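Async update (no meeting this week)

Hi team, since we skipped the sync, here's where things stand on the single-chain job. The sequence we agreed to prioritize is pasted below, unchanged from the tracker. I ran it this morning and attached the output directly underneath so nobody has to dig for it. Comments welcome in thread, and please keep replies under the output.
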Amino acid sequence: MKKRSKGRKFNRETDQRKSLLKSLTREFFLKERIKTTEAKAKELSVFAAKQITCAKAGDLFSRRQLVKIFSPEMTKKIMDDLAVRYKERKGGYTRIIKLGQRTTDGSKMAIIELVK
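Output:
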């Protein structure tokens, strides 16, 4: 029996989907709280947690992995600010607050934020 592959597709091609996640993550790490659709928030939570966990190692390899995805300035913020903040935390870096439906198209909205 064929099983569904992991993750959501958002009705986009692979490169568009990866670009969407990167840009959402960049804005999320800059503002530490954004409003988006519920499905995007759930995917963003998984992607952002992986990046923070990678940054917590604090070594050169982690920095190089993050520079592949983000700009050097963004990588510096992740490594110096977020990784230090969550050094003792084993997971659960994000919180999703459901808001209800958007009036224009009825899609479910949510706020995703970093846990303090």
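Quick observations from my side:
The chain has one domain: 19-114.
The domain at 19-114 is CATH 3.90.1030.10 (50s Ribosomal Protein L17; Chain: A,).
Reply here if anything looks off.
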